[in-house]
Design goal:
The protein is an alpha+beta fold. Helices cover 21% and strands 39% of the residues.
């Protein structure tokens, strides 16, 4: 535990969709003074994301779906192009990404590689996201994808040329952090080089 943090008090502000708490605590500054601080922390649980890639075809599998927060913040359609991802919901990260890849994209993969973990918005959200990659081929396509009706998902599956996907970051067509990070991982590590 961090000895520079004490007297932590949590006040529940909302537990409608996920949990929003107000946290009041004392924090010791570098000069030794203790100051009282207040923050809000949104706890939605941890998640996992996966980038499906095909080196031979030079493609990646992405999905497009409506995201209300992006709509509220200026994305006129609210549609966001993303890597497949989801909350762990009691699963381990590997099981989660295998399940999410099939539910969202229709591709069933069994061999996945964890590449890193990241806090995506550590100033306000507690979530740790586990990042994976997996090679796929046409034989992995076992369904239509599109998400789960009971989760009210409306997902469009996109098989995109890798270089085009990278260019979509610069044009602003891809603005999702997890997707950008995974595309850059493939590029940096030369996984799509012929």
């Amino acid at each position: 535990m961090n000895s520079k943090v004490k007297n932590i008090k949590k006040v529940l502000l909302s537990d409608n969709w996920y949990t929003l708490n107000k946290i009041v605590f004392d924090y010791q500054m570098p000069n030794g003074d203790w100051v009282n601080q207040q923050r809000e922390a949104y706890d939605r649980g941890n998640g996992a994301a996966i980038m499906l890639y095909n080196k031979e075809k030079q493609t990646v599998v992405l999905v497009s779906q409506f995201r209300m927060p992006t709509y509220l913040n200026g994305n006129e359609s609210g549609m966001l192009i993303e890597a497949c991802a989801g909350l762990l919901d009691g699963d381990d990260p590997e099981t989660c990404v295998i399940k999410e890849a099939e539910e969202e994209s229709g591709f069933r993969v069994s061999k996945v590689q964890k590449v890193f973990e990241s806090y995506m918005s550590p100033g306000a959200v507690t979530e740790v996201l586990h990042f994976y990659i997996a090679a796929y081929d046409d034989g992995n396509k076992v369904g239509l994808g599109g998400g789960l009706a009971e989760e009210q998902e409306d997902i469009t599956v996109l098989e995109v040329d890798f270089e085009k996907a990278l260019a979509m970051i610069s044009t602003g067509e891809i603005k999702d952090a997890k997707t950008i990070m995974l595309l850059q991982y493939l590029k940096i590590h030369g996984l799509m080089e012929p």
